[in-house]
Specification:
The complex is a heterodimer. By secondary structure, chain A is mainly alpha-helical. Chain A has one domain (15-23, 33-220). Chain A has seven helices and no strands. Chain A has helices at 5-23, 39-66, 69-100, 109-129, 134-162, 176-179, 184-220. In chain A, helix 2 packs parallel to helix 7 (184-220), helix 3 runs parallel beside helix 5 and helix 3 runs antiparallel to helix 7 (184-220). Chain A is globular, with a radius of gyration of 19 Å. The relative contact order of chain A is 0.17. The model of chain A has no long low-confidence stretch (mean pLDDT 87). By secondary structure, chain B is mostly helical. Chain B has one domain (2-217). Chain B contains eight helices and no strands. Chain B has helices at 2-21, 24-44, 50-74, 78-87, 90-119, 127-152, 158-186, 193-217. In chain B, helix 2 runs antiparallel to helix 3 (50-74), helix 2 packs parallel to helix 5 (90-119) and helix 7 (158-186) runs antiparallel to helix 8 (193-217). Chain B is globular and about 55 Å long. Chain B starts with a helix and ends with a helix. The model of chain B has no long low-confidence stretch (mean pLDDT 88). Chains A and B meet through helix 4 and helix 5 of A and helix 7 and helix 8 of B.
Chain lengths: 221, 220
C-alpha cells in the first residue's frame, strides 16, 4: 500500500473532478455557458499526453545509451498510452467545438497540429511493425521517436503561438484564467490535472506489465 | 574535427562524381518535375490565385524532393555502405549526404521555379524573400528526408515507409515555408523575421539530431 499511494490520489482526484466538475459553480459566460466545464477534461488530456510522451522519449534515449530491451517496451507502451489520451483530447475538443464554434472540426493551427501529432505517432507504430528483428526495431524506433518528439514540440508549442488561432488562450483569445476571477475553477482544474496525469501513468504501468508478461510467455513457449 | 571536414569534402565529391557517372537518376528527377509542371499547365492553363500557385508549387517540390532523396540510402547496397563505414566516420557520411542532397535540391528547386514560371505563370513580388525561403526550404527538406531515408532503409518495405514517415514529420517545416513564400508572393513590406528564425531553428535542430543519432542507425 505504501508504494501505491499515488493510485489512491489518482482515483480520488479523478472522482473529485467528475463530481465537482459537473456540479460546482462556474463563471457564466456568453457562448461558452456550461461548456466551460470541458476545461476539466479536455486540457488535462493534453497535459497527460505531453507527460507520457516525454516518458516515451526519455526511455528511447535510455535505450540508445544502455540497449536494454526493457526500455524499448516502456517507450512503446508509453507512446500507445499517449495516443489513447491524445485521442480522448481530440474527442472532447471536438464535442466542445460543436457547441461553441458550431463545427466538429475547423482548419486551425492548433487543431491541425494535434491531428498531425497523432499521425506522427501512428507512423511510429507502422515503423515498429515493419522491422522483425527485436534489437534493430528497438534502436530504429528509438531514433524516430526522438525525432518525432522534437517535431511535436515545434508543432504544439511553437507554431500555434505564431499563427492566429480560434483556440482559447491563443491568438488573442482569452484563456480560462481571464474568466476565473474568484479561482473557483482553479480549485477543480489543478486536482483534475494531477488526477488525469496520474491515471494516465497508472494505465501506462499496467500496459508495461502486460507487455512484459506477453514477452515472457512468448519466450517460454 | 579537421579529419571530419576532410572526410566530408571527399564524400561530397564522391557523391557528385557518382551522380555524374550515371546521369539517368538526375535526368529522371528533372523529367519528373518538368512533366508534373506540364500536366498542371495542361489542367490549369495559367494560375492567377496566389494561394493556389503557392500550394501547387510546394506540392510539386515536395514530391520531387522525396523522390530525389529516397534513393540516398535505400538504393545503396549493404556491402558498399559497410565499406564506406570502415573508411569514414558515420557522422561524416550523414553530413556529406545532407550537404550533397541540399545542393541537389537547390538546383532542383531553382529549375522547378524556372519551369513553373514559364508554364504556369509567375506571381512573385519579393524575389529575395522567395529565394531565401527556397534555399532554407531545400536545406530543411534535404536534412529531414536524408535522415528519414536512413531510417526507412532499415525496414522491410522501405519506399512505402519513406512516405509514411516523412509526410507527417515534414508538415511543420512545410507550413512555415508556405507561409513565408505566400508573404513573398504578396510582396509584404516587412519580412516576418519570426518565421525565418523558426525555419533556421528547424534546420539547425534537424541537422544536430541527425549528427547525434546517425551513429545508432548505421550499425546492422
Amino acid at each position: 500500500m505504501k508504494k501505491n499511494w499515488w493510485k489512491v490520489v489518482a482515483a480520488v482526484c479523478v472522482l473529485y473532478t467528475i463530481i465537482a466538475g459537473f456540479l460546482f459553480k462556474v463563471p457564466a459566460q456568453p457562448i461558452l455557458h456550461e461548456t466551460i466545464r470541458n476545461l476539466y477534461f479536455h486540457v488535462p488530456m493534453w497535459f497527460s499526453m505531453m507527460t507520457i510522451l516525454f516518458v516515451s522519449l526519455w526511455h528511447s534515449i535510455k535505450y540508445l545509451s544502455k540497449s536494454a530491451i526493457e526500455s524499448d517496451i516502456v517507450a512503446s507502451q508509453a507512446a500507445h498510452t499517449g495516443m489513447l489520451v491524445g485521442f480522448l483530447g481530440l474527442v472532447t475538443g471536438s464535442i466542445w467545438a460543436k457547441y461553441t464554434w458550431g463545427a466538429w472540426w475547423v482548419a486551425d493551427t492548433k487543431l491541425n497540429g494535434a491531428a498531425i501529432t497523432m499521425l506522427i505517432y501512428l507512423a511510429y507504430f507502422v515503423l515498429r511493425g515493419s522491422i522483425d528483428e527485436e534489437q534493430k526495431r528497438a534502436r530504429i524506433a528509438a531514433v524516430y521517436n526522438i525525432f518525432a518528439y522534437v517535431m511535436l514540440i515545434v508543432f504544439l508549442l511553437i507554431l500555434p503561438r505564431m499563427n492566429d488561432s480560434l483556440h482559447p488562450g491563443n491568438g488573442g483569445n482569452p484563456g480560462f484564467n481571464k474568466y476565473d476571477l474568484d479561482s473557483t475553477m482553479r480549485m477543480v482544474f489543478y486536482p483534475a490535472v494531477i488526477g488525469w496525469i496520474l491515471l494516465t501513468v497508472w494505465i501506462f504501468t499496467l500496459r508495461v506489465r502486460l507487455e512484459k508478461v506477453k514477452q515472457k510467455l512468448l519466450y517460454n513457449d | 574535427m579537421k579529419v571530419l571536414f576532410n572526410q566530408i569534402k571527399y564524400l561530397v565529391a564522391k557523391e557528385i562524381k557518382l551522380e555524374m557517372r550515371n546521369k539517368y537518376a538526375l535526368g529522371g528527377i528533372l523529367l519528373y518535375v518538368v512533366s508534373t509542371i506540364f500536366v498542371s499547365y495542361l489542367s490549369f492553363k495559367s494560375i492567377v490565385t496566389p494561394s493556389v500557385w503557392n500550394a501547387l508549387f510546394w506540392i510539386i517540390l515536395l514530391f520531387a524532393s522525396i523522390n530525389a532523396i529516397a534513393k540516398s540510402f535505400i538504393n545503396e547496397t549493404k556491402g558498399k555502405l559497410l565499406y564506406l563505414y570502415t573508411l569514414a566516420n558515420p557522422q561524416a557520411v550523414i553530413l556529406s549526404k545532407i550537404i550533397y542532397n541540399s545542393l541537389l535540391l537547390i538546383v532542383l528547386s531553382a529549375l522547378c521555379l524556372l519551369f513553373y514560371s514559364i508554364f504556369v505563370g509567375n506571381l512573385i513580388q519579393d524575389y529575395s524573400l522567395f529565394l531565401l525561403t527556397l534555399l532554407l526550404g531545400s536545406c530543411g527538406f534535404s536534412s529531414l528526408l536524408t535522415m528519414v531515408s536512413a531510417i526507412a532503409s532499415k525496414t522491410n518495405n522501405n519506399f512505402t515507409l519513406m512516405a509514411i514517415l516523412s509526410f507527417p514529420i515534414m508538415i511543420p517545416l512545410l507550413m512555415v515555408l508556405i507561409k513565408l513564400s505566400k508573404n513573398a508572393i504578396d510582396g509584404l513590406e516587412h519580412w516576418d523575421v519570426n518565421y525565418l528564425l523558426v525555419l533556421v531553428f528547424i534546420n539547425v535542430i534537424i541537422i544536430a539530431l541527425s549528427y547525434l543519432l546517425f551513429r545508432y542507425l548505421w550499425r546492422e
